[in-house]
Design a protein that fits this description.
single chain, alpha/beta, 2 domains, 8-stranded mixed β-sheet, two-stranded antiparallel ribbon, 14 strands, 42% helix
Length: 317
């Protein structure tokens, strides 16, 4: 089986190390030509051979180790796949924010598979940093693991066997739309981002658009706000676009909210529950309002620090 690596950046160069260490021949190519790989070849030895992109794409197993955005250019004009195994070692990352790209819930490997009709695409080699990937996988009496997923079971088995020969321990995750969903970079963040956008759109529809939004320290909430605010920003009657909503982040927001809930729970627990939804809503709303008044969260133009009684009178008036 002839193997080839397309890409000689951090991941591509790192992948060449276990091939050289295991005395397995591999081709390597990049967009700059074989001459640009002289330094890497001198470091790794004769088992790593530089070649051109068209020649590398003809190998039995092709490992894509380029950035996700450069994949289309890397596979453009490649040879007919005809069942060839293509290993997707990319991660769909949005730079410079370094967050997962929003692909509409689709795995990035499915998008790459559409670029290479007829290929048996497998996801592997994407879960470790380049420095770790290049190092010896045998550590402390064990072996470093690499995950494998794909639609074709025989292709998954072939790549798992290759990983074994390279010294690592393969862990099959099954198909891409099953266990393979855990494999892409920031998979949980993508799911969280989708949920955050759905919640925010409902909140904006129900409560109107605020000038400022306070979120916790996670990047997911901030990204959801920017995305929804850009796509769904309403306009005034004059058709003049509103300014973007300001985002304020607090790393301890969840702790503060939990402290408020703890205070409210102390009041509610002795009540032994509520008989109706309406009475529960009214009672909890009143408890929350009194708690906010105690914390002096309301603002009054003519009184800087009003007492609880003064705030109650102002509200009643």
């Amino acid at each position: 089986m002839i193997c080839a690596i397309i890409g000689s950046g951090a991941i591509g160069s790192a992948l060449a190390h276990p091939f050289a260490r295991s005395n397995i021949d591999v081709l390597i190519a990049n967009s700059r030509g074989p001459e640009s790989l002289a330094g890497l070849i001198a470091e790794l030895g004769s088992h790593v051979t530089p070649t051109t992109l068209p020649e590398a794409s003809k190998a039995d197993t092709v490992i894509l180790a380029v950035s996700f955005t450069a994949t289309a250019d890397a596979v453009q004009g490649s040879a007919q796949s005809n069942g060839r195994i293509v290993v997707d070692a990319t991660n769909a990352i949005d730079f410079p924010a370094f967050i997962p790209k929003d692909l509409g819930g689709r795995p990035s490997t499915d998008i790459i598979a559409e670029m290479i009709p007829g290929a048996r695409v497998v996801k592997a080699f994407n879960t470790l940093p380049a420095a770790v990937l290049a190092s010896d996988p045998a550590q402390d009496g064990g072996r470093r693991v690499l995950f494998v997923s794909g639609k074709d079971a025989s292709a998954n088995a072939d790549i798992a066997s290759l990983i074994e020969r390279l010294g690592s321990a393969p862990i099959p995750l099954g198909k891409l739309n099953q266990g393979g969903l855990l494999q892409p970079f920031g998979a949980s963040l993508v799911a969280d981002l989708t949920v955050a956008k759905r919640f925010l759109r409902k909140a904006l529809k129900r409560h109107a658009r605020p000038e400022r939004i306070l979120v916790d320290g996670s990047q997911t909430g901030r990204e959801a706000i920017h995305s929804c605010d850009t796509a769904d920003r309403p306009k005034e009657k004059s058709r003049r676009e509103l300014k973007p909503a300001r985002v304020r982040q607090s790393g301890y927001l969840n702790n503060r909210i939990e402290q408020d809930h703890r205070t409210i729970k102390k009041r509610v627990r002795p009540m032994l529950g509520f008989k109706a939804m309406a009475s529960a809503r009214a009672t909890l709303g009143g408890i929350e309002m009194i708690h906010m008044l105690r914390k002096q969260q309301a603002k009054y133009a003519h009184i800087l620090r009003p007492s609880l009684a003064e705030q109650s009178n102002l509200l009643a008036a």
